[in-house]
Amino acid sequence: xxxxxxxxxxxxxxxxxxxxxxxxxxxxxxxxxxxxxxxxxxxxxxxxxxxxxxxxxxxxxxxxxxxxxxxxxxxxxxxxxxxxxxxxxxxxxxxxxxxxxxxxxxxxxxxxxxxxxxxxxxxxxxxxxxxxxxxxxxxxxxxxxxxxxxxxxxxxxxxxxxxxxxxxxxxxxxxxxxxxxxxxxxxxxxxxx
Length: 193
What we know:
This protein is 51% helix and 11% strand.
């Protein structure tokens, strides 16, 4: 079976004080692991048994899609964050942020408004459309830009389990902390030419 739970790119304590070790472990070791195990169980003995997670997301439906998309979203999310993250984007990404949002502060404001506007569980994304423009996208539940034409640059988990331990029901405080962990270099590396 090629589908395995990926390791975190840093220790579970690396995102403190913005996201506690306990909250990271809950998301990774319980929620993401559960999604991976569902994918493993549902693809065993099928054409997807050795398929890449991205292929399963693109080609599946129902509970297999939900589990595969959540596993992919969570895996992507960990790469979007880093110890001593935050700050401002640089280079080409900074130019595109300026062109499409005016500046990073306005990007954050628009992103936060979209994230706070989502009722229930889901994800907020900074994406690049095929024409090169940047946009904010919000998806419900396991929705992911991976199934569309846009390239995800950053993904923010808006499921309650992502922030409840550290921020209870205060999604706004969680978003403020999330921006302190953003890995702009990773986001820039996702840009299409």
